Amino acid sequence: MDYTFIKSLGRKDIDLVLEMLESCLPFQYAERDTLEKLTSYCDKGFFIAGIFDGEDLAGYAVSSILVGESVKNTFNAYNVQTDREIWAPAGILNNCIIKDEYRGRGFQRELLKVREVVAQNNNVEEIYTSVHIKNINSIENLMRAGYKPLGQHIKSDEWIFFGKLLKDPVYFSHPSRIVL
Ligand SMILES: CC(C)(COP(=O)(O)OP(=O)(O)OC[C@H]1O[C@@H](n2cnc3c(N)ncnc32)[C@H](O)[C@@H]1OP(=O)(O)O)[C@@H](O)C(=O)NCCC(=O)NCCS
Fold this sequence. Notes:
Elements: E1 4-8, H1 14-22, H2 35-43, E2 47-53, E3 56-66, H3 69-77, E4 90-98, H4 107-121, E5 126-132, H5 136-144, E6 148-152, E7 159-165, E8 171-172, E9 178-179
Parallel strand pairs: 4-5
Antiparallel strand pairs: 1-2, 2-3, 3-4, 5-7, 6-7, 8-9
This protein binds coenzyme A.
């Protein structure tokens, strides 16, 4: 009997991920991870969640934690203005790919939830991601999960920066006054 489950992927699963990616039709609004990129996620200790349907890898999603000045620099790159002076560690949703035949079954939403839990378990209270303005499915999933648009990339303004507080409220002043 088939069943779905999510598990953390590591170095030994890279070939499986690459095989899954090879079976996907081209996609426009996400990076197609390579061996180098997946290896670097493992080297840097990024979290990779795989969602399985029985033995079949149906999709995966990557998240990481930014600290200190990199958080500030990321905010600046997306034109997000805030008067905060202390930069807490921030969770980042890096990528999420679902195999074509498994799309529309809520798998991206499941992988979103699990990455939030992992961020919280690592004492991260804020989580951010960048999504292409035309990636309607991802934007709807994020907004439904409580993410708010916070800014647009300074150089490549079709990329929108979304954020969500996993705990206490923080105030941002761009593009309009938003309470997360
Ligand atoms: C964007 C992407 C990750 C969404 O994954 P997903 O598991 O299909 O997303 P979900 O099922 O959680 O939600 C998709 C929404 O679109 C709807 N949908 C309907 N048919 C769909 C289809 N064929 N494909 C995708 N979404 C579909 C879903 O029903 C759902 O909305 P609903 O809950 O109101 O029904 C997936 O399409 C994908 O891998 N795309 C290519 C790579 C990419 O763009 N990644 C995102 C980077 S941010």
